[in-house]
Write a structure and sequence with these properties.
Elements lengths: L1 H38 L11 H46 L1 H16 L2 H12 L3 H26 L2 H9 L4 H12 L1 H12 L2 H11 L5 H10 L3 H30 L9 H5 L2
Helix pairs in contact: 2-3, 2-5, 2-9, 2-10, 2-11, 3-5, 4-5, 4-9, 5-8, 5-9, 6-7, 8-11, 9-10, 9-11, 10-11
């Protein structure tokens, strides 16, 4: 056991490099070819700015870009936080009550399938160009996966967990919160991961359709003035913020639940051994 534990750090490092190196090489090659094509004037700078032009544009407009990004970040994270609380609550309701499941599940599916461009104008009418409309819109479009994964995770918890807790004198509600939800936590985080991948994109899209500031407004101004480097700058910021949010969610999951094991894909199989 001791020798295995000593090998774990090295194995983890090799595994990390094995995952990180291929995409890093691919991205580097794409940027190199992109820059060489731009230098050879194979593409128009107006149509496709070179990586060097994008970096130069970001450096020149960095304070303004970060000011707009801070607005989008506040809206996205606020909506995301609301969606986690509401999503877990709805997921528990879907699991506990067939009536709630039949009443809310179709609405959740409908909210997920409606294109944001069709519902954003309504939010502008209801809330104006204020941030509150963007926050609610992010929450609405982020709650589905969290609610569904919470419900499925609770339903997949083996029955004996509940039986043991009830035999020891626990109430059903205590068992739900302290036993079943804990066992289903991996799947709940799976839903949170899915939602985290889209919150910044949703916020930017909502801003683009109607807002006074934010990255969406930045994109609209860049598009109207044909500033291709500024468009890429905004895209890079959105991708970076999404990556950071996903990393934070993974870190929180690791701190709360420990590192995921290869055989943790389903606790149902483990419990039946």
């Amino acid at each position: 056991m001791t020798s295995e534990n000593k090998r774990k750090p090295g194995q983890s490092a090799r595994r990390w490099w094995g995952k990180a190196l291929p995409p890093a090489i691919t991205i580097g090659l794409v940027l190199l070819v992109w820059q060489l094509a731009a230098n050879a004037h194979l593409v128009s700078a107006t149509t496709l700015a070179s990586p060097a032009e994008i970096v130069s544009s970001m450096a020149a407009t960095w304070p303004d870009l970060m000011a707009e990004a801070s607005v989008t970040t506040g809206e996205a994270l606020s909506g995301f936080a609301i969606s986690i609380v509401v999503g877990v609550a709805i997921g528990m309701g879907l699991y506990l009550s067939k009536t709630v499941n039949r009443a809310l599940y179709p609405l959740l599916v409908a909210a997920q399938t409606i294109p944001i461009i069709t519902i954003a104008p309504l939010f502008m009418i209801w809330f104006g160009f204020n941030a509150i409309g963007k926050i609610i819109l992010v929450a609405v479009f982020s709650v589905f996966s969290i609610a569904v994964e919470t419900s499925r995770g609770l339903a997949a918890v083996p029955r004996f967990y509940e039986d043991v807790a009830l035999t020891c004198g626990a109430t059903r509600m205590w068992t739900l919160f302290h036993v079943k939800l804990r066992v289903a936590a991996r799947q709940v985080f799976s839903g949170i991961h899915i939602s985290a991948a889209y919150v910044f994109g949703t916020a930017v899209t909502a801003e683009y359709l109607g807002a006074t500031n934010g990255i969406g407004v930045w994109l609209q101004g860049a598009f109207n003035s044909f500033q291709t480097p500024m468009i890429f700058s905004a895209a890079i910021v959105v991708v970076a913020e999404t990556g950071i949010l996903l990393a934070v969610v993974s870190l929180v999951e690791r701190l709360l639940l420990g590192p995921a094991q290869e055989d943790d894909a389903t606790f149902l199989d483990e419990s039946e051994l």
